[in-house]
């Protein structure tokens, strides 16, 4: 009997040992299973591009939307937009390129391309365009040519922007200056335009500007350049070999004197700083500024908006214009991935030109201009043709600072410190001094 | 009482179990306690270390932000280097009054310098003069001169007693005329004239909090962390995540300096570290769920428990094995001892070493050897004694004298013509000769039957017709070896049972048969038999009495013991009887055919 009890004791212990094993084994198993659980693969790190823009009209919000939309559609790319004032933008961009902190992608005005093409500050894009399937043929000839230097494309044009004439229908209607199609009735020549403004001035309430144009900055220079180019034989800036400025001529003076007369007769009230805001707030009847205002103005409540091209005051249509282009500043350590991503964005932005056109710009791609979506946009088609009569600034590496010199002289003229002839002469003299350096 | 019963229980526990129990108490308990204390200490240390680490990280973070803020702060001092700006701020102006070309260029170049000297994240620069002059540059728009300083703006009264220190304003919305809304924090400085100490105006620089957010985003305390910066009244400057738990937000406005605290929020423990910057007065707060921090400790705990359970389990298994292995020889020994107790002295303990158990086994074997030796000696002595008794008997009555006397009686009877006497004396002579025929160990069944036949011839003469004796023997068994004088006592017993105590006739049957190599010799009578009790008593007597050779009435026992001694326990005499239905004695022996064919003649020479 004792014997068997011992044996059952053994068995009992064997059983309990087995049960311990049974408890431990699943734990071990559980442990193993836990390890097998691979952590979810981290989302692909997107290529991050720093993207600099100089938008200070009403158009930045549209660029922001464009970038947001792009980021949403491209999980592998993230565009970080940094917007600066146009006033400081190029100074900042130049410093950044020289100090090796250049952004991966930047908007550069076509006028400004020469200073960045020199010394290879921005990259030639032909190879990249071929790689990413960007077709240069989709752009209108004029705008495509504006990006070609030495046979190579250096930037992807986003748009054409020109001066247009915005008007508040409320004031024009009150002055009886609207035709049946709600277009302004403007007489021919200098007299016609002056009379139009005179009539407006008599009609608008006090404090409302007949024509709004800032007293400072480049706006008056744009108007002068447009009008100077309308004159037969006008529009000459440099001598043929580009060594001297020669715009102190009769046609130029005629155009400038007409511009100046608008200020002196106070058809453009003195001391206007922010003409854009003035018109936006319904405190101006007419505004001559770039197409970039359309998107903002059409949303303004106090404004009954109308847009027409800048009237032909002289011999033929001509209007100042420029292009926003996308360029890749040269960086020593920029990866192919980043370049491709930058190009992908450029291509996408061109193809989605309608989004950008909502700001007011004329899209660079012919296909977009001809698209149903674009023609469905109000106002834009009213001035889409001005892209054909656009006059860029001449190509010169120093054109931006040369323009700043003209601005300075014109500001002094507007503030009655000198005559139009003096202003032209002063500008030409000081520009020639710059060109000699 | 319970302790006592436990002690009793423990004392009676098998040795192996005692060992296992002690082992469990002395291994599992200390191990468990050690593990528990080690883990508790580790947890505590980890929590403190994590708190310290968090605080250090926040300090570093705050230092980085302070450096950046100092850099921005330098920009607010710039108006002092631009007399045109301070002059402009000092002028008395109606709102919207146009600026001169000179003022415009002066202010514009100043603002441009601020933008260019600053970083790309400067959104706006505003100058406010106490005399109504203003120059405000907001994102996406031209400068504006019509802004008037809002008298109710919160930072305005903070400059009292500030001695030229700037004020940092928490993040707020900045609305551009283009429609975009920017997030910006601001640095505000009071500008004063050196000559008369009067306040000239204020400069406000609006900055995108992007850079601070970037610094924050580079800090990782934990995947579930919450990192944000608030100003002294609890307004958010920027945060990695905007959902601030209630419990944390409540206490945030009162926090200054630096420290780590525990907060309960929504049932979850949070470790909150905060550092207040001396430059900006902003408080950087890092919130980490304690559970997140303790993830590692939980893993450790799991492993500790797992490894502990495995180790203890293995140790227990091993110990159980060892305990049983050690006590196994002891148990075997005790088993052997019990069989020795029952009289089996053929056991031996397999000694496999010279340890205590080996020695014990050795002594046990020695003891057994001694015991069997003693037993044998006793047996021999007994036999010698018997021999002596017989020799004495034989010497008392000289058998030859008896034989010769009986021969003479037979001769006289023949002369007298009395055949009964002749038969009786001849048979008696044969009986005597067989009984006293020296020391023969074995005889054949035939010899034994002849003897019984002679005996019965005499008895039948005595009882005449009252006895009927029949023999029924398998002829093949006649040469089987049997023990001499084995059957006669049974027959004698049967005659006693069948006749002496009853009147009338008796039938005695002697049968011999074999099956399975067992020779069975049965003697039956038809006498009065025995009741169950008497029979059982007799059987018990047969089984248990080992004393050999009783005087009288012990004939059956004698026969039984001799067979057992000779052939082993499985053979012997068994009895069956029922009252008034006779008595049956059955002898069982092994079937052993006699080797020497020639029957030894029992010559009494």
From TrEMBL, chain A:
Protein name, UniProt field: Multiple sugar transport system substrate-binding protein
What the entry lists under Gene3D superfamilies is as follows: Periplasmic binding protein-like II
| CDD domains documented for this protein | PBP2_UgpB (cd14748)
Q: Which superkingdom, per the lineage?
A: Bacteria
Q: Which UniProt keywords apply?
A: Sugar transport, Transport
